[in-house]
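Just curious: can you write whichever protein you like plus the matching structure tokens?

***
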Amino acid sequence: MPDLSQRLQGAVFGSLIGDALALGVHWIYQPDKIRRLYGRVTDYIDPSANQYHAQRRAGDQSHYGDQALTLMRSLEGGAGFSLAAFARRWEAMWSHYAGYVDGATKQTLEHRKAGGALEAPGSDSNDLAGAARIASLIVALSEAREDDLAAAARSQTAFTHGDPGVIDAAEFFARLTRRLIDGASMEDAVEQLASSGDFPHLGLDEALESVRKGLHFPASEALPAFGLTCHLPEAFPATLFLLLKHGDEIETALIENAMAGGDSAARGLLLGMVLGAIHGFDALPPRWITGLNAAPEIQAWLASQDCRCGVDAVADPDPGTNKVEFTNRDGHTLAARLEWPPHGAKPKAVAIFAHCFTCSKDLPATTRIARALAQRGFAVLRFDFTGLGSSDGDFANTNFSSNVEDLVAAAEHLRKTVGAPRLLIGHSLGGAAVIAAARRIEGVRGIVTIAAPSDPSHVSHLLGDDLETIEKEGEARIEIDGRPFTIRKQFLEDIRSQRVLKALDEYRGSLLVLHSPLDRIVNVSHAGEIFTAARHPKSFVSLAEADHLLTRPRDSAFAAEMIAAWSNHLFD
């Protein structure tokens, strides 16, 4: 039997998977057409060019799922539900939304623009979708009273959907999911809720009677008979049918839902939530989890919740510096330090700090910046690349590409423990490495480079006269800052093959470039090339009189202040 953590994870992932699986065939009302065009829909598919969600791609959410994610983002760890916080994020979402905008949303936006109160319904829509985005409430209020969960579900629904039946539906599904998580059977939980008399506008008794009469029919016949539209009188019994017909088979239920067509996205959000809560996270097909484009964000959010229900969640690190180890692609153990915010606070975001060429995680500037960012609410992992510092492996066998692989391994370790990294910070060659790694790490929203070269081959100038020896003999023993290192020809060949600026052109997040005009190791012109190659939003901050390694404490303190201030718009 799945434990509480499994059930809570399953509710959120199941809901958004149900929406994403339906995306490609959403609002196709002819099941025969779906079968003819797509066969059996068992995986995410791209919507067609003439479909409502033509701007979306396989693994994306519908506009319903995007609203569910917005509700999730409004639920700060341990803070509970706030209608004002949800409304603020919901309204901001539509200001730049590249996708379909439904009628209830348009009416609500007009209502708010005209000064309508938060508590006054934004529309009179009876679409079930208003009740369907509540999975994150199940997690965020997992330790609250059931009545408080029900009230939050009703409140978020009424903000956009004023139909009393839809508001009752939100409460019904919230209470049903809570009781299933607590161990009730589907039949018992439904019967208890039906006999309570608490849903006067839902038509629960009538829906149950019609559903039970039709359970011997396959979904392909029963659902069109109930009706496939968005509207509550059709969508509610259709959803209830799938829950009772396929309650033991979450994969089958979500596939049959997509194959039925119509408003499958709203039904999918509710089906996935309820059945995910019964069967748990491990019952979800792995291909659906890895293919869900929002998965890293969901995992990070789950890990931030007080319920400790993040995927592979571990106990919160202690405030301050925590010793960490993880394994890279080649099986080497890499040494790391995880800086955690003080007072046990939940981090606003998780970051990775990549150190400079032949440096270590314990370089004074690296340590100061990571700790200063932790004081400002970030969790920051700083680690030694393979063969450096306290990490295993032979430095002579490493190169720029292996550094990128180490960054990917660090991100995977964070994803499985405290949350997926959203911010990558790199110093010197580490700055070039985080640019190259960003496209391999899902969910990255910001990159910060500090004194970074625009071309990794720039580091070859540090090799001086030994460069010719390496070219001719295949390797050389050199000294950098008084420390001996073996550099092999494969290292030179690797850095010459890198195209960091091209990778930056493909990056779609925010970028902050920090560089000193007096840097004698990496000329400030490299910062200009990085800045020019990047797309907006991008920012440049001069480090004034700092040297390349930011050896003065005030320079690293300033860098940390700039990173924290710049990132406020990313992780508010």
Observations:
- The first strand starts at residue 320 and ends at 327.
- The chain has two domains: 4-304, 320-456+500-569.
- The mean pLDDT is 91.
